Amino acid sequence: MLIRYRKNYEKIAMGLLSFMPTEKDLKKLQQTIKQYETNDDWQLFLWKENDDIIGIIGVLLRDEDVVEIQHISVNPSHRHQGIGKQMVKALKDMYPNHRLQANEFTASFLDKCQF
Questions:
Q1: What is the pLDDT of residue 113?
Q2: Distance (Å, whole) CA 31 – CA 28
Q3: Which of 61, 56, 70 is nearest to 14 (CA)?
Q4: How does 68-95 read in b/e, with b if 16+ C-beta sit within 10 Å?
Q5: Which of 36, 48, 70, 111 minimizes the number of CB atoms within 10 Å of its CB?
Q6: What gap in Å lies between CA 31 and CA 41, rounded to an integer?
Q7: Tens digits of per-residue pLDDT, 69-79?
Q8: Residue 38's beta-bridge partner residues?
């Protein structure tokens, strides 16, 4: 289930985001979290299963009909179970009148998730 990011999830969110190649540097990671916390067009969601947060997906609301996936990451011990695809589907359900779009870092994964 997708849940909206809150400040008390910061360490979990940073841990999950750090699995992305672009977010290895601590300063960059802190800037990314700050962007999600301060800009209303940037939305961060966590994937929760059985009281554990095991995935994260972050989007940029580009305009009235485009949602761009900026970040997507799943805890390595839960990968290859379809969780990433479930997060993309939940996002699509959350924004039914929007087109999902990838950035250069999420494009290859989003291509695998065609619905």
A1: 77
A2: 5
A3: 56
A4: bbbbbbbbeeeeeeebbebbbeebeeeb
A5: 111
A6: 15
A7: 999 999 999 99
A8: none
